[in-house]
Amino acid sequence: MSFKNILLPVDGSATALQAAGHAVELVKAFGGSLTLVCVVDSYPFTGVGADFAYGQVEYLAAANANAKAALDKAEELVKSLGVTPQRKIVEQHVVHEGILDTAKEIGADLIVMSSHGRQGLEKLLLGSEALRVLGRASVPVLVVRGPKVERDRPAGV
């Protein structure tokens, strides 16, 4: 199997960047290309009525600026490893759908992404985008495990 078109979702976190090294090695091994994607939640507000739409323009401007910063950081790392990537900001209310839609749009044959290593209640509440992508992707997904997130516990617990 050959991976010629690899998609690397990034969110600005150090954990997400851990997957970049693996993606670059695969790009070099297969002579392929790399696309970075950052998904912006296009409508994070909840509630009923027009009152909740106020601030949408400001939110999107800030969210897109954060996405650009995340892509800049990832691109800098990837370039330092010898690969010049393509990059995309995608506005999508559901992050994993934005990743999967982008994979389909660019004809990706592999998605390389990180898992933040959340456990317990935090994982239940926050979910796992990597798990959602893995369960719904029509192409292979390489999940790079981030460091396990542990919380301080009282002695004896």
From TrEMBL:
InterPro entries: Rossmann-like_a/b/a_fold, Universal_stress_UspA, UspA. The keyword Cytoplasm applies. Its main location: cytoplasm. It is found in: Cytoplasm. GO terms for cellular component: cytoplasm. Keywords: Cytoplasm. The keyword Oxidoreductase does not apply. Belongs to the universal stress protein A family. PANTHER family: STRESS RESPONSE PROTEIN NHAX, UNIVERSAL STRESS PROTEIN UP12. This is Universal stress protein. It comes from Paracidovorax wautersii.
